């Protein structure tokens, strides 16, 4: 009844979020997630209302709603949907270092190595300091190195990691020497 009488988008969003909260509390109870369980049914209803809330949300609240959608997708075991939602969050709402680390985090959880490559590509394009780029590359190459099987690609990633470490060390030395010069 409240949804049909709501006049503006913001009001519809808030009502859908309130309904999603009710169903989310039912869906997060302790118990097994089976096909016809109250937990599954409530989770699906919460997800439905979260999707509607996103549709009516204003720009400043969209990321908050998307994060809740991703959490419910994870709780319901919808791994591909979760991955797609987290990708949208990373590529549409985050920038710079946050975007790179979010993509790396998706790779950590899904074991989809292409997300490490996306993180590296985004780091190269990002408008951040050289030190930050090198730090991100060092982290992501290290994670990628740990996940790759022995072979040519692993050896190539190892070389790139060593190169980034050298650049990072040189940049840190420059930064440190600049700070010491200013303090004199």
Q: Can you tag this structure with a few keywords?
A:
184 residues; mainly alpha
Any overview of this molecule?
- With 184 residues, the protein is mainly α.
- The protein contains nine helices and no strands.
- The model has no long low-confidence stretch (mean pLDDT 90).
The whole-angstrom Rg is 22 Å
Low-confidence stretches: none
Number of helices: 9
Q: Calculate the terminal CA-CA distance, rounded to whole Å.
A: 71 Å
**What portion of residues is helical?**
over 70%
Bulk shape: elongated
- What is the H/E string? HHHHHHHHH
Q: Approximately how much beta-strand content do the residues carry?
A: under 5%
Largest sheet: none
Q: How many E-type strands?
A: 0
Q: What would you call the structural class?
A: mainly alpha
Indicate the mean pLDDT.
90
């Amino acid at each position: 009844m409240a949804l049909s009488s709501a006049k503006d988008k913001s009001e519809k969003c808030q009502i859908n979020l309130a309904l999603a909260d009710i169903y989310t509390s039912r869906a997060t109870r302790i118990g097994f997630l089976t096909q016809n369980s109250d937990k599954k049914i409530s989770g699906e209803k919460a997800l439905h209302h979260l999707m509607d809330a996103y549709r009516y949300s204003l720009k400043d609240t969209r990321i908050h709603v998307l994060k809740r959608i991703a959490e419910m997708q994870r709780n319901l075991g919808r791994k591909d949907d979760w991955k797609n939602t987290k990708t949208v969050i990373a590529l549409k709402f985050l920038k710079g270092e946050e975007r790179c680390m979010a993509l790396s985090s998706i790779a950590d959880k899904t074991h989809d190595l292409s997300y490490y490559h996306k993180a590296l590509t985004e780091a190269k394009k990002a408008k951040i300091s050289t030190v930050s780029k090198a730090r991100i590359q060092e982290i992501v190459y290290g994670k990628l190195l740990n996940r790759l099987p022995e072979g040519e690609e692993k050896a190539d990633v190892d070389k790139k990691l060593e190169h980034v470490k050298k650049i990072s060390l040189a940049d840190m030395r420059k930064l440190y020497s600049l700070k010491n010069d200013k303090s004199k």
